[in-house]
Design brief:
Residues 22-179 form the HPP transmembrane region domain. The chain has one domain (24-176). It is built from 9 helices and no strands. It has helices at residues 2-19, 24-48, 60-70, 79-99, 104-122, 128-138, 142-146, 149-169, 182-196.
């Protein structure tokens, strides 16, 4: 029992140590990626929509930014998860809202629960997707009026903007590689070797 406690303490101490290491270069690129990804969406919002219509910049994009710019090797941060998770969750959220529009205590948990199961089933699990589904059923104003257009814009269009920015900033240095799929890594490696010759 004593050995188990000591081992658990050692492992915990190591994990905490690794998680608190500060790599300033990584943090710099994470900052720039998130700044430009969210910044582009916010810029489009502020220049193409009325100030009262905050529909293009949805809260779940902030959570996605944490994953795709700050935890780029996470399976939950990969492009399939980012786009698929948000789009499927938006579809679920809008569908649930159309079926049960006025019973929030039922529509909110149904939207989130169904979106989780659908993301698991399609292997597109992306935690911010749950928020995307919840936004579809709990928002007031313009978002409910959008209906299934909510899936196209802001959700799909915002995801594409975040992804393009992630592909640029997460591959700008040799230490960062996104997505983590081995086929994409081989392609980047070939391109990097070709440019250095």
């Amino acid at each position: 029992m004593k050995k188990t406690i000591k081992r658990t303490f050692r492992v915990s101490k190591y994990v905490i140590y690794k998680e608190t290491l500060v790599d300033y270069k990584e943090h710099f690129w994470s900052f720039l990626g998130a700044f430009f990804g969210i910044g582009i969406i916010a810029f489009i919002q502020s220049h193409s929509l009325a100030e009262t219509e905050n529909i293009f910049l949805i809260g779940s994009f902030g959570a996605s930014s944490v994953l795709i710019y700050g935890a780029i090797q996470s399976p939950l941060a990969q492009p399939r998860n980012l786009v698929g998770g948000h789009v499927l969750s938006a579809l679920v959220g809008v569908t649930v809202f159309k079926i049960i529009p006025d019973i929030i205590w039922l529509s909110a948990p149904l939207a989130v629960a169904f979106s989780i199961v659908l993301m698991q089933y399609t292997k597109t699990l992306h935690p911010p997707g749950g928020a995307t589904a919840l936004i579809a059923v709990s928002s007031t104003g313009k978002i409910p009026e959008l209906g299934y257009w909510y899936v196209i814009s802001p959700v799909l269009s915002g995801c594409i903007i975040l992804l393009i920015v992630a592909l640029f900033f997460n591959n700008i240095t040799p230490n960062r590689s996104y997505p983590s799929h081995s086929r994409f890594k081989r392609l980047l490696k070939k391109r990097h070797i070709h440019h250095t010759k």
